[in-house]
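Because discrete structure vocabularies remain unfamiliar, we first show an illustrative case, written as a sequence plus integers encoding its fold.
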Amino acid sequence: MTAQIIKDNVVYDIDFHTFHDLSVPIDTSGPRAWYLDHAEIEAVRDENWVGVVAEGGSVNFRNIAFNPHSHGTHTEGPGHVEPTVHSIDRAVNSYHVLARVITVLPRELENGDHVIYWDMLEEAVVNNRPEAVVLRTSTEDRRHKNWSNTNPPYIDAIAAKELANHGVLHLLIDLPSVDREMDEGKLAAHKAFWNIPDEVRMNATITELIHVPAEVQDDTYLLNLQIGPFENDAAPSRPVLYPLQKR
């Protein structure tokens, strides 16, 4: 299946058979963050029945216990940091937008922090004017990493604000948070990107714990941001990139 889109009077061809899935699945050996243990997937059992076909059950029937912020790729909205838990299920107006993949090397500070600043993103954002930005901070495979107590890199609040000022609606990153792991609850980058506490950008999202494969080049793609239909501040998600061919 192929299609065409037009952006700034430029025609792009899209082949939907070619894509890059950026999601990290929820799994009992998958990533984890925020001091939680692994997700749990267990068969339902009672005295008369078991939800395991291999053990004689008629179907496999399992419960899953997980936290979307900890156990895989997830998308969150302003309800993540506001008193009202606005549902992510109603946050997105369009699931297809143009996205720019940007590989960044966070800058090391004297205190050992590694930070992403606006000057690392400015050229790619200003020149391409994407609706979504996909940040890759490493080509390392971190899909089974325990991020707790590792002080991962994070985004400077001014950079997050500039992304918002330049019309970026969806920010995706291969880290457990856009903010510092231990930041005394400030959540400065989250709030700057969502423009909290002023006129909150209710249709803006942040997607964390993605995996951008090494073969994905820094370029502009069509992003399909698939979000699980949960009535919650965040939900598991599957961001998919489709390469564009300029005519």
Summary: The mean pLDDT is 96. Residues 4 and 97 are 13 Å apart (CA to CA). The radius of gyration is 19 Å. The longest helix spans residues 157-165.
